[in-house]
Every structure is written in C-alpha cells, then in structure tokens.
From TrEMBL:
This is Putative transcription factor interactor and regulator LisH family. It comes from Lupinus albus (White lupine). Residues 60-117 form the CTLH domain. PANTHER family: RAN BINDING PROTEIN 9-RELATED. Pfam families: CTLH, LisH. Coiled coil: none annotated.
C-alpha cells in the first residue's frame, strides 16, 4: 500500500457515515420508485402501507406489466391493443416504438414459419413506414433477411429471433408507458449503486477505508493494512 494513502479505521469511517443525514422519507421514496418502475405490484402495495409513502394507483403497474408479458410471450397484437387501452397517444406520438412493435410482430410470424403472411405483413404494414424513414427501412431489410436462410443461425440478423429481442422491445414499451404516466422510465437505485462503485474507485487512489465489496450484502470490509 502506498505510504501516501490515508488509513481510515472502521470507527472513524462509521462515524463519518453516521454524520451524513439522510431522510427516511427519501429512502422510502427511492425504494418505492424501484418497485413501481420494475413492476413489483405486491411488494409495492405492502411497502406503501408499511412505510406510509404517498398513495398511488397500483393498478397502472398491473396494466403495464400485462403489456410487457404480452410482448415477452410474442403476442404483439395483444400488446398493442393493451397499450391503446391504456393510452392511445403512446403509439400515436411515438412512431419509432410503433414500428418496433410491428417489427416484432413480423419476427414472430417468421419464427412461426408463416412465410407468406410475414411477407404480406411486411409489404403492407412496414414497407410504407420504411419509405418515410431510412432507419426503419434498414431495420426492415435486416428482419426480412431472416427469410433468406434455411439455417437461421448462419444469418447475420439471427439474434432477432433470440429472447433478448423480445426483452428489448418490452423494455422500450415499458419505458414509453412510464413516461406517459409521468413516472421515471428508469429506477434510481441502480444509478445510485453505480455512483457508489465509481466513488469507491476514486477514493481507493487516496485512502484505505472499510469499503463495500458485495453490494448484495452492503457490509463494510476492513482495509488490508
């Protein structure tokens, strides 16, 4: 260890942490923000009652998760219908999102081997949008390329058939719904943990101190001296 580094004992470090005042209300709001954004309805309901955080309509979480589930199961028509039931303006004002949902529907048709239906759908629903937007056209061409390979694993766009593609589309829809409901589209907690890791890495260059190495346990570990 470099001699220039300051060594902080556990007692000194814990005292500094104790001196930092954090309101319980702010902590509760951050936890609630995570539960709502990630869609943990039951946990959010229990936490809201136990912590006394501001009441909110948890039914909106259930509706949003139902949309995500539809996308993740490949039922895109049902997902679009559910989004429109929630708020028609979500898709009316977000052509990129609507295109990606239609693209996912095309992918599902190809996955199911409905080639003729896939070609017809691409020509009638997606091609006109591609003519208006170059990036849409490129994504459409990439998706259609799946039909050119008997063995999809050899297709450069083969990952479109992976579960990760459904998750990507579901995440995009989820973010759009959250925004329409005046919620943040990303939870604050992961960002806070990233900031903690960054801060510790910066501090490591100047001092030896009890640090948190396992974020899941959040326990302080004494520095090696």
């Amino acid at each position: 260890m470099a001699a220039s580094k300051k060594v902080m004992t556990r007692e000194e470090w814990e005292k500094k942490l104790t001196d930092v005042k954090i309101r319980k209300k702010d902590m509760n709001n951050m936890v609630m923000n995570f539960l709502v954004t990630e869609g943990f309805v039951d946990a959010a309901e229990k936490f809201m009652k136990e912590s006394g955080t501001e009441h909110m309509d948890l039914a909106t979480i259930t509706d949003r998760i139902a949309v995500k589930d539809s996308v993740q199961s490949g039922n895109i028509e049902d997902a679009i219908e559910k989004v429109n039931d929630l708020n028609p303006e979500i898709l009316d004002t977000n052509p990129k999102l609507f295109f990606h949902l239609q693209q996912q529907r095309l992918i599902e048709l190809i996955r199911d081997g409905k080639i003729e239906e896939a070609l017809e759908f691409a020509q009638e629903e997606l091609a006109p949008r591609g003519e208006e937007n170059q990036s849409f056209l490129e994504e459409l061409e990439r998706t259609i390329s799946l039909l050119a390979f008997d063995n999809v694993s050899k297709c450069p766009a083969g990952e479109l058939l992976d579960t990760s593609q459904r998750l990507k589309t579901a995440s995009e829809v989820n973010a759009a719904i959250l925004t329409s409901q005046s919620h943040e589209k990303d939870p604050k907690l992961p960002s806070l943990l990233k900031m903690l890791i960054w801060s510790q890495n910066q501090l490591d260059e100047k001092a030896a101190y009890p640090r948190i190495n396992d974020l899941s346990k959040a326990t302080l570990e004494d520095p090696a001296v």
